[in-house]
């Protein structure tokens, strides 16, 4: 069990551009975390730095406060699970799990006890005598995972896109198993993925990376409701967050005809800011055929249905706006709707960075 | 573009792909979605519409003209596949222009250029015209394939799961582009997919296929609101409709010991399948249930975040149910959750053949 900290970590491969820059993240002991980012965002570099496969150009890696920057992967006791199952194909499942323990010269009775306990936890008990190469991809990935956690001295498990080769029907079983494993063992787990859904499904805390930097760490709810960058708002959620050009005035922040009221303390801070944008999720936009206080009229240009809700495409001044409405709402192309942005759901950005205001 | 396919039969050596399939699409429809699982005849249907496969029997009319025996090259169709099919040795411009280069009479060089630029701009790829396909991302390559299919005015644009390989943000963007394009064109877009969400978001009409036949055809929202049978309910909803064995006695519906409620217009006593869409299972409600609603306790098997929603897999007695919640948060496995069911949201299907016996209130209103 361990608390892992990256402090001022930067890395470049040879003389290339910086792959990651000034990363400062703490993974608290026992938390299920995810490291989320598009390809090229630096997340795999960060993973390799945590596991010890890579020594950072700058900065320190701390495990439980102890500096391990100079230690190699073997010394760090961090288990890693990769996209493709890693195991000895000629051995049966039992011997695969026993391998790392026998390497440590553990007495055979204890090996048996640990292997069986781990197999039970991973639902592999019935497969212990099977040859590893005869198993399906999902089962093999479970064996890889079990191999990672079978040792007693494991401080953390790193998972690198572990569901890539698993077929869609089997995915949720393995997802559930990962979650169950975490709940039962309380081991620190860091799940690396480019897939928003996998990250938010697995993790209690998600760190988002882009272009080599950490842009936000938070709970799924925080990422969804208070994204620190417009691009996080866009990539998390369907449809993504509305991002609208906005102007700060005396009475509040305006998008075309609609003004979200803010006090003078806020508006004073906003005036003069460049490239002001207002972000609001489609499901938080209030819409009604009747006039709304602090609202404005928008025209309905199109209506999509998902089967469980309507996605209304509306035009508010110059801006295109998406609004999620109840499936039972009767709204069609050409209608006029009153729109209101509840201030507690509004996010403000200037030049791509979130501005904290007290709503 | 009116389309009439009647009693279409297409057999292969080991299987019957189309088994007397009839599909009539009116002139004013922009896009029809063909929703079916893999192996239900989608691709064969598209190939028949394209003229790539000949029917064993049956007839096909496009715009009132019988084209049953006419070869693909003489038909005015274009097709887009799930895999990004482009000519690797040709630049994007020439890929898109290729259908015009081989059409007779061939348009002038300036006309070809004009049309390529118009469609490339529409699909947001005009800056890549000088590149080669392999220099583009998957989403951009699929846009090139779409541009090539749309550069010529055709009668039918046939799309075989064109978004299948793309991540969900790209799908979102391309869905809205395709919907827009289908409205602007005279062509009928036929969009085959196993994913109901594609059909719901884009197509005004849908045909749900099963075993080489059309089980139900109609306006998309109506098919969703009034599925003809339990299979359509399950197939044409994402997540799929819940189907639970239930009993009706003296107008009271029962599933297991705890879920019981009286039903308006209850059918005669007996066994039925209760159908309820996942978004109508209301979980984590605070306070007492709405008047008339029934409440049960279920165990949370798993919670998966999908888009802005969470799909909750629940078990109640020996039933597995899916519920949809819009609360993105962390969940604990095996927590007990309350589930409220409003009787007006319930569908009943015949327990033996799956036919719809009673639609939900909304469904009955949609049917008028």
Brief account:
Chain A is α+β, with helices and mostly antiparallel strands and 359 residues long. Chain A has helices at residues 43-51, 73-76, 93-103, 108-121, 137-149, 168-185, 196-202, 220-225, 230-235, 264-270; strands at residues 4-12, 18-27, 32-36, 58-63, 66-67, 78-81, 156-160, 188-193, 205-210, 213-218, 242-245, 247-248, 252-255, 258-261, 276-280, 286-288, 296-305, 309-316, 319-326, 336-340, 347-350, 353-355.
Your description of this structure?
The complex is a heterodimer of chains A (359) and B (368). Helices cover 26% and strands 33% of the residues of chain A. With 359 residues, chain A is an alpha+beta fold. A six-stranded mixed β-sheet of chain A has the order 6-7-8-3-9-10, with helices on both faces. In chain A, strands 16-20-17-18-19 form a five-stranded antiparallel β-sheet, with no helix packed on it. Chain A is elongated. The model of chain A has no long low-confidence stretch (mean pLDDT 93). Chain B is α+β, with helices and mostly antiparallel strands and 368 residues long. In chain B, 24% of the residues lie in helices and 35% in strands. Chain B has a six-stranded mixed β-sheet, with helices on both faces. The chains are: A alpha+beta (359), B alpha+beta (368). Chains A and B meet through helix 6, helix 7, helix 8 and strand 17 of A and helix 5, helix 6, helix 7 and strand 16 of B.
Task: For this entry, give a set of tags.
heterodimer; A: 359 residues; alpha+beta; six-stranded mixed beta sheet; five-stranded antiparallel beta sheet; 22 strands; B: 368 residues; six-stranded antiparallel beta sheet
Q: Report the C-alpha radius of gyration of chain A, rounded.
A: 25 Å
How are the strands of the largest sheet of chain A arranged?
Answer: 6-7-8-3-9-10
What overall geometry of chain B do the principal axes of the alpha carbons give?
Answer: globular
Q: State the helical fraction of chain B.
A: 10-25%
Neighbour order of strands in the largest sheet of chain B: 6-7-8-3-9-10
Largest sheet of chain A: 6 strands, mixed
The tally of strands of chain B reads 21
Share of β-strand residues of chain B: 25-35%
Helix-strand pattern of chain B: EEEHEEEHHHEHEHEEHHEEEEEEEEEEEH
Number of strands of chain A: 22
Distance between the termini of chain B: 28 Å
Supply Rg of chain B: 24 Å
Uncertain ranges of chain B: none
* Poorly predicted runs of chain A: none
The largest chain-to-chain contact, stated as pair and per-chain residue counts, equals: A-B, 36 and 38 residues
User: What's the overall average pLDDT of chain B, rounded?
Assistant: 93
